[in-house]
Each structure stands twice: as C-alpha cells, then as structure tokens.
C-alpha cells in the first residue's frame, strides 16, 4: 500500500489532465501542478514487440490522452492541436495550462528516424518555448539516444523500467543542438510527365519542393528536394551497407525482431558487400573524389574546394559524437593537430559546424573500435556542397540519420547537387552520462572562444536556398505510412 502511494504521488509529477488535450472536455481540478508534464510518442513497430509493450506500460501509468502511437496519430497534428488548446486556456486565465506549457517535455520512443521525425515537427512549429525532447532507444543504431546519455540498448518495458526512465527525464538537463537543412536538386528524367519526381526509394526525411529558381543558372534543375537532419549525412560504402540492410529488412521483417541479431546481420552484410577488400572488389569510380566535387564554407562565408584523398570511399558530415551505433568517427584531435589542420575547435553539437570525416574501407572503419581511433579528418564546415560529376557512375548510396537510399546520378547532361547548411537549433534532454558537448561546457573548460559560437537564428537567409530553409516540412517529409520501420 505504501509503495503504491509513493508511486502514485510520483506519477502526479508527470500527469497531464485530459482537458488540456481535448477542448470539449470539462476542466479537471488537479491536486498539484505537475513538475515535469510529459507527452509520449511511441513507434509501436520499432524494436520488434518492444514498442507495443512500451505503450501498454506508459498508458497504464499515465493518462491515455498523453501517450500517442505514431502509427495512429502524427505528432504534427497532436502538437498543433495541443498548443492551440493551451493558448486558448491561458487566455482564459488557466494557471495549470500555463505551467504545463512552460514545463512540458517530450518523450519519443523509436529509432533515429522516429526521433528525427519529432524533432522536425517541433522545429517547424516555431514555438516561442519549444519543449525539449528525450529519446528512448528502440532502433538498431540509436545514435541520438546514445549521444545524450539515454543508452543504445533497447530498454525494459516493465513498470519499474518506465518509472526509472521518467525520473531520469525529470532530472535531465536541456541542451541545444544544431539542426541541418539539406537541399538536393536534380533534373527530372526526360521520360517523366511529372515535375518534380523523386527516386523511388527516397527517404522520408526528404520530400519534393516545387520552386521557381531565382538564379538563371538554377533553371537546369527541375526537381528540388529538401529535408533536415540532426546527426549525419553520409555517402559511400557505409550507406551501401545500410541500404542492403534496410532492403533485406523490408523483404523479411520477421527476421529483424532482435537488436543483437540485427547488428550481426549488419556486420555480415558489410562482409558480403566486399568492403573489407574494397581495393579489389570496387572500382575507383566508387571513390568520393571520382563521384563529386566537394566545396565547403567556413564561418568566413566563402566557398572553398575541399580536396578529398583518392582512397576515400565513404564521407560523413557529422554533428553528434555517435555514428553506426555509438562510434565516434572524428575522435578527439590534440590541440597541435587542430592547429595543423586548421580546425576551429573540438566537435560541439551547437557550434554551427559539421565535422567531415572520410573512410577508405571497412578495415579503416574498424579503427573506431580502438580507444583513440578515428577516420580521416577532412574539415569542419558551416555549409557543404556536393556537385556530382557526369558519367562517373550511374548511382551513389546516401544516408541521412539512418535512412539510406540509392541516388541516381547524372547521365549525359544531367546534374545532381546536394547542399547542406545550418538551419537553427532544437532542444534535447541529456542525462549526466551525456557524451555530447556544447559551447557552454566547452567555455567552462576554456576550450572555445565565444566568437566561435552560433546563434539559433543563424539561417543564412541571404542566399538562393532561403525559401527552402523556412522549415523542414517535417509534417510531410517525415510522414510514416506503411513502411514505419524504415529507420
């Protein structure tokens, strides 16, 4: 009896009454204002059966109205309705609604793709006080949860585990992280009657955007796709292995119910794709330097060509210190190496810079398993541009926060251009075990100068991509339909 009383009192700290969500509901009198009101979004297809088990437990402990199944309700509609109702209640003088509005925190359970979906929606809502987000690791890589201290193993779904997680959410600190906008432009196939038209397997994180080019040179591109990411964009061998994994999982979902077996399958595919003997199995046309001309822009605001070593077969533009299930491709360069390579600072998640790293083959990738292992550090950049060479090869594998696709490349006169730029910031919740570092932590250790920091309104509005950068279009680009497990 005593334990139940303690549990019930604790749960009141997270409880949100129904009338906050449902306008026509009668106003409830609450005994106390929750100190950490939460809304929970769960991808019930993630983690095999775990997503389904988790939503049952959350709905048992909290109000059903504050726990949502992403297969049934999209977060953009949920949050738009919720914030509209809270604004109405606050205008009527409801103090409970005002405090919930101020203290609200979000929990999202799923893989990195699911977490990115919610982050994109929060970004697009342009809220005055956007709620911070905690992530429950239900995917295969779980790079977002791991970066902020939530672990990379699938969690327990019993009451004790969920109560422990809720306590961690209440104690978690807020951290800002950079969000990144990606624009991909290409020509429509000449046989197509639809403009724009997307590659068949384009990820959910990119969607078609019809625009009238301001620049006359831009008229050569008839298709534009835009989206956003928070952790990484990669191209090359890592994306090819990921694409093979996702294709196999789509064909045989019954074989992918266990996180450990999924990871073993991933390693097996890396072997069968031939990346451990890349110099023998893969032509030079797969090397990044043969595929694309790469330009970067630092804080100075001038484009410069980035020389890519001929041996590099995979390139990663990284924001967080976690890639492929917790590996850190950038590592921790010494101050001497930073000066030698013209690197601005240690990798920070809110500095407005991406770390660009290259890999030669799968053996090079395995170096990351050693304590001080890292890839080939190429640059830190505020913007990155890939302009693909004509005739190098007919396709390239790309990946955006865990979502891979097979991108057709220029034939004859065709062109493909990918540009990545800083788009603002979102707020994450981080535990004491957080490995991600921000400017605030770096300043306290005297490792970064204040002028290197980036403000959240840094959106580069004075260029040709300003219209695309107004939002991610997350309500469209992250919409999960039948293929909800694609992450």
UniProtKB/TrEMBL annotation:
Residues 446-466 are annotated as: Disordered. It is an enzyme of class 2 (transferase). Residues 457-466 have a biased composition (Acidic residues). InterPro entries: ATP-NAD_kinase_N, DGK, Diacylglycerol_kin_accessory, Diacylglycerol_kinase_cat_dom, Diacylglycerol_kinase_pln, NAD/diacylglycerol_kinase_sf. Its EC number is 2.7.1.107. GO terms for biological process: defense response; glycerolipid metabolic process; intracellular signal transduction; phospholipase C-activating G protein-coupled receptor signaling pathway. GO terms for molecular function: ATP binding; ATP-dependent diacylglycerol kinase activity. PROSITE patterns: DAGK. Phosphorylates the second messenger diacylglycerol (DAG) to generate phosphatidic acid (PA), another important signaling molecule. PA is required for plant development and responses to abiotic stress and pathogen attack. Belongs to the eukaryotic diacylglycerol kinase family. This is Diacylglycerol kinase. It comes from Oryza sativa subsp. japonica.
